[in-house]
Write a structure and sequence with these properties.
Layout lengths: L1 H20 L3 H29 L1
């Protein structure tokens, strides 16, 4: 699980960097949305992991 969370966060970082370097506003917005989705997935996995540990 930890590897998956770390991988999703890395993908989010890559998408954010690509969005920052993109000159096209639509592409940039799409990449930022993708990064937000990756972070949301990582957060959800982490919260489920915490609930199981209790």
């Amino acid at each position: 699980m930890a590897k998956m969370i770390k991988s999703l966060r890395k993908q989010a970082d890559k998408a954010e960097r690509a969005a920052a370097s993109s000159l096209d506003p639509e592409s940039s917005a799409g990449l930022m949305a993708l990064a937000k989705g990756y972070r949301a997935q990582a957060d959800m996995i982490k919260s489920k992991k915490r609930r199981k540990a209790r």
